[in-house]
Amino acid sequence: MSAENKSVVIGYLPDDTPPLGAMLSLGFQQFLTMFPATVLVAVLTKFDVGITLLASGLGTIIALLVSKRKIPMYYGSSFSYMAVVMTVMSKFAPDCYNSTAAYCPEGVQIVQVGIILTAVFEILVGLLIMRAGKAALDRVLPPIVTGSMAMVIGVALANAALGNAGNWAAPEAATATWTVAFITLIATILFSVYLQGKGLIGMLPILLGAIFGYIVAIPFGLVHFDTVTNAAWFELPKFTFPAFTSGEAWGMALSIALIFIATVPESTAHLYQMSLYIDELAAEMGRKPYNIKELIGLNLIADGSDDLVVGLLGGCAGTNYGENNSLMAITRNYSTAVLMAAGGMAIVFGFFGKLVALVNTMPAAVVGGLSIYLFGVIGMQGVALIQSEKVNLFDPKQLAVGSVILICGIGGNLALKDGLFPFPLPFLFPNGIPAIVFAAIVGIFINLIFLVFKTPEVRGN
After folding, report:
1. What would the 3-class secondary structure string for the chain be?
2. Which domain holds residue 246?
3. d(CA 338, CA 317)
4. What is the pLDDT of residues 140-151, one digit of tens each?
5. Does the predicted TM-score (pTM) go above 0.85?
6. How far apart are CA 274 and CA 288, in angstroms?
7. What pLDDT, in 10s, does the model give residues 94-130?
8. What is the mean pLDDT of residues 163-192?
């Protein structure tokens, strides 16, 4: 009976290498999952889309090699840096940034210095954690902080998901856009639930949902091929060299680099989530647990390695993607070989203009439908993390930290203008502190108070 049960367990662990066909199809699904958000950040901040894709793929491959292929993560463009990057662009490349131009190299070169400094900070913190041990970080970033931040990150992305699904559509197109989005959403959910355990096809629900939604969107008039026709087959990505000799660049570098404060809890939360799901699959397969949650320091060094690559090439600041983590949890595929294949595809797509243009014809409605599911899974994984770590939610300390993070992070994004707390810090956050950053800082600060000033012990119920 046990042998029969083991035979039906479908999935890939980090050191597994699927057959070539499975690896390519699973890799394309990972690529497709990161593509919309990674490209969107580049478009909004006026970075080159081609180099952003290339840097994302190369940065992911380098990060996987740095982690010795122990930590399955895909790296795409980070939304956390958008506010400060837009500030830099509007200050140092105003004519380009306020025009219809799609790419502003003068501003990009300034931002690159900050991204590289971010990489240095991440690597140094990672080395410090590897030396001091995981327990030291657990005291500063306990599960209530990382789990709550995962919930904030997932729910805070609701605006982007619902915006693509139809909220940003023109009034005359809103009905069609919302319809396609929810058809895509329902189809993706049905694929993920009813094809589970059906072999390779059961591991491709997001890809199947995207294809289904794309086909549905065509008769609604939401798919346009003009950009594909006009695009060149081969287009060299626009590499830029960081403005190391510019005093202005170094003046803004620290304000960009300190955003990593927000990405450390995010990255740690992602690592804990992945560890939970990987070890569950390993147990079902009768294999030893991987315990990648013990590799927090190495994970941050991998994060820094990715930012070093994208900073040197001219891509957007990176982060390991919750969307891709969600996809891995849904498909039960954690193979680093698959992620390296996805990275290779990103590099190729960065050079071929028509391929980029074709994938970019995917309607916002389809992206929105997929995002509702994927971003929601990020938030639910935060709940799973808190449950798995047996956080005592009858303890006032835990309640205080978690509740403040949730309200400041989620409420701040919903209620505050531009999602900013009105505490301007010169050079760092001149227009105010982003809600996600503020939530992380306040949550960590409250937790530190409890560490410094001993509190009564509370028994779990």
Report:
1. CHHHHHHCCCCECCCCCCCHHHHHHHHHHHHHHHHHHHHHHHHHHCCCHHHHHHHHHHHHHHHHHHCCCCCCCCEEECCCCHHHHHHHHHHHCHHHHCCCCCCCHHHHHHHHHHHHHHHHHHHHHHHHHHHHCHHHHHHHCCHHHHHHHHHHHHHHCHHHHHHHHHHCCCHHHHHHHHHHHHHHHHHHHHHHHHCCCCHHHHHCHHHHHHHHHHHHHCCCCCCCCHHHHHCCCCCCCCCCCCCCCCHHHHHHHHHHHCCHHHHHHHHHHHHHHHHHHHHHHHHHCCCCCCCHHHCHHHHHHHHHHHHHHHHHHCCCCEEECHHHHHHHHHHCECCHHHHHHHHHHHHHHHHCHHHHHHHCCCCHHHHHHHHHHHHHHHHHHHHHHHHHCCCCCCCHHHHHHHHHHHHHHHHHHHHCHHHEECCCECCCECCCEEHHHHHHHHHHHHHHHHHHCCCCCCCCC
2. 12-452
3. 23
4. 878 898 888 878
5. no
6. 15
7. 888 777 677 888 889 999 999 999 999 999 989 988 8
8. 90
Q: Is 416 left (phi over 0), alpha (psi -120 to 50) or beta?
A: beta
Residue 421: phi and psi, rounded to 5, are -75, 135
Which two tokens mark 252? 């803004």
pLDDT in tens, 4-53: 444 567 889 999 999 998 899 899 989 988 887 788 778 768 888 899 99
Which tens digits make up the pLDDT trace of 325-351?
888 888 889 999 999 999 999 999 899
Q: Could you tell me the pLDDT band of residue 200, with boundaries at 50, 70 and 90?
A: low
Residue with tokens 């980070």: 78
Domain count, the chain: 1
Per the domain annotation, does 136 fall within a domain? Answer: yes
Q: Which amino acid is at 439?
A: A
